[in-house]
Amino acid sequence: MKTFDFGIVGLGVMGRNLLLNMADQKHAVAGLDLDAEKVLSLTQEANAQHQIKATTEVKEFLELLKQPRAIMVLVPAGKPVDTVIQSLLPYLDKGDILIDGGNTYFTDTDRRFTELSAKGIHFFGMGISGGEKGARFGPSLMPGGNKEAYERLRPIFESIAAKVDGEPCVEYLGNGSAGNYVKMAHNGIEYGIMQLISEVYDLMKRGYELDDTTIQKVFQDWNNTELQSYLIEITGHILKKTDTDGQKLINVISDWAKSKGTGKWTSQNGMDLEVPLPTIDAAVTMRNMSKNKPERILASAKLVWNAEQGNTDLPSAIEALKGALHFSILITYAQGLALLTKASQEYNYDLNLETISKIWRGGCIIRSVALEDFRKAYAKNGELKNILLDDTIAKAINDNQSSIRSTVQFAVQKGIPIAGLMNSLAYFDAYRSEKLPTNLIQAQRDYFGAHTYERIDTNGTFHTEWND
Ligand code: 3PG
């Protein structure tokens, strides 16, 4: 009794795998789940060296833990988290630490933090990325909130996190709900990159009519270039997989893309903070578009475009696709990092973008070689307003400009939807425009609503009687 270092509530895939990861690192871990089958399957998976005990009883679970207790809740975000907290609360003591490891909306974490600190319970949210495998063998962990409480558990988290150059992919990120917020932005970037990869895949398949084996080989090869990343790597694996009949599995997977909300939250919060995230917005929109299958079938017969056939030099076309993807992926990161920069001021998170780039280099879904360049950029200049302003990143972007432009032209001509690629280019062209046509919008607003405008030649606020 009271000999276990850590407790996990919720023994679904993530909870079970994190628990086993901790047990591998010689921590004694207790698990709680109301589902007896999950408890049994964890017990069966444990080996003789593991110090694991799992139960379906709240009181028994809490009795197992050393005091002050450290408990992580890994249940679906929303009401289930509150339900678990309510079930634990009567038995918790002052000084106990509760961690929400799910994809919780950050304002929920702020609310729970306030409610629980009034009772003397240290609560914090921690983003966890890496999926099933990451949780088991080394995720990227994004803790925020009470720093002292985190410090008490730091050795445990450092031991289970992914390592890059010997450094653990976990570090305290900032105040309040910083951990959940950073994970939300991580997922927004993830949505953007996944969308971009799918568009480039579409351009290869429908645009250039490459066969499945060639497409697979291209993605596999790209993973040995500046595009090296987890998402490119798994794309190569996915395109290789055959079904029971020997055909490529990808070709029989429905195009109806689902989501659990973190991408949408990123876009919504980007709007609230007035940070442009057009690639991420497009990614969310395209998942929504994908759900509209019956209508798309109708439209595909009615709204027709006959693309011209052209001669294509395939090697240079593929090189252009690679450049376009590289360009757009960098733009997606730039949007997500710009969101974090603004959110840090807005919510007093005090985020350090160098630290975030560092802990995203391994374990998480958006890990890529680019993250090391970002880390270096922020190490050089912690005040960097946008990662595109760093010389190394600006050069990579500029070097790929002609590729993104020719790729967008090709897709437009072919009638292939590339909302992510197009929006990445639009973001870039707008961001580098000293002058935008929004002066006309200001004039229109003043015309119909007397909303006033500012002038470039003198200070003050002006209104014009446009009709006289
Ligand atoms: C996850 O948290 O499982 C993924 O990173 C995002 O999930 P989604 O694509 O289902 O929203």
TrEMBL record:
Active site: K183 (proton acceptor), E190 (proton donor)
Keyword Amino-acid biosynthesis in annotation: no
Keywords attached to this entry: Gluconate utilization, NADP, Oxidoreductase, Pentose shunt
Xref: InterPro entries: 6-PGluconate_DH-like_C_sf, 6PGD_dom2, 6PGDH_C, 6PGDH_Gnd/GntZ, 6PGDH_NADP-bd, NAD(P)-bd_dom_sf, Pgluconate_DH
Any Pfam family: 6PGD
Origin superkingdom: Bacteria
Record-level GO BP terms: D-gluconate metabolic process; pentose-phosphate shunt
Residues noted as binding substrate in the record, renumbered to the chain: N103, S129, G130, G131, H186, N187, Y191, K260, R287, R445, H451
Residue intervals of the 6-phosphogluconate dehydrogenase C-terminal domain: 179-467
Enzyme Commission code(s) on record: 1.1.1.44
Catalytic reaction annotation: 6-phospho-D-gluconate + NADP(+) = D-ribulose 5-phosphate + CO2 + NADPH
Signal sequence, renumbered to the chain: none
Pathway it works in: Carbohydrate degradation; pentose phosphate pathway; D-ribulose 5-phosphate from D-glucose 6-phosphate (oxidative stage): step 3/3
GO molecular function, one term: phosphogluconate dehydrogenase (decarboxylating) activity
Reported function: Catalyzes the oxidative decarboxylation of 6-phosphogluconate to ribulose 5-phosphate and CO(2), with concomitant reduction of NADP to NADPH.
Assigned protein family: Belongs to the 6-phosphogluconate dehydrogenase family.
Record's subunit section: Homodimer.
Name this protein carries in UniProt: 6-phosphogluconate dehydrogenase, decarboxylating
Provenance organism: Flavobacterium cellulosilyticum
